[in-house]
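User: Show me sequence and structure for the first protein, then do the same for the second.

Assistant: Starting with the first protein.
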Amino acid sequence: MTALRGYHHVKLPVSDLRASIDWYGRALRLEVAIEFEEDGVLRGVALRDPGATLMLALREDPGRAGALSGFDPVALGVPTLADLRDWSDHLDAAGLAHGEIAEGSAGWLITGLTDPDGIEVRLYTLEGRS
């Protein structure tokens, strides 16, 4: 049997799909790759980064989104500390609040970046601290 190879996608619940599509586009430069409709109404999307290296799905589910407020269910990988600094600059330019770059248990990270439902998305370096 072959080993698992990372994630196919991560799915997060949201209370306002349109507002979340906008936020994830501005914050993480993600674009809609797939739309999911039920009875002719848009209920979810799969977002993809321009390099097609990750997919993040959003599903309209206000109750679950509210329950995750203040929680950090996902940390997205950033190759290096220099790249993380670039992301911090991007978030600043986009006017999105976030924490300072800090030392984590296995690298450097940005905390405090929260989507419209208060769900925290962390950016974490894939290289360790030196």
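Switching to the second protein now.
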Amino acid sequence: MKKCLLLFASVLFFSCSAYVPVNVSPQSSSKEYELETSKDDLYVQVNNWMIDSFENAKSVIDFSDKEAGIITGKYLIGEVYSASNNYGLTDVYATVRVQIKDDYAKLTVTPENYQYIDSGDVSEDHKLPVEKVNRQVNTLLESFEQYVAKN
């Protein structure tokens, strides 16, 4: 009986709070790097950088073509509560694409559009305003620059 009352009270509590869906359309960012490294060496460095940077198991290298000099990955930015997922957690990703040639690399990070619920009931960890996404994208760009510069 206590469990039923607790369940009823929690449903009543959550149904009274205001859920405001926030639509987010982050901008893509890219940066070009002039390096003194062969295409083959850059290819290995970029793969290693992605392995090191993609700490979450949901972040993966999707496509890799050494001849074309393209490596593409899916990077988990975070999780949000979303109305589109019945108010459950939804993963938010960015596509990370690196194009490489001899002495040159171009990194492009394109976060996907998403929606999150803004409510007093939702933890700040599960809200993902565009400023937070921009910080993560900039961190990835800086991480790449530091990685290829030291190797």
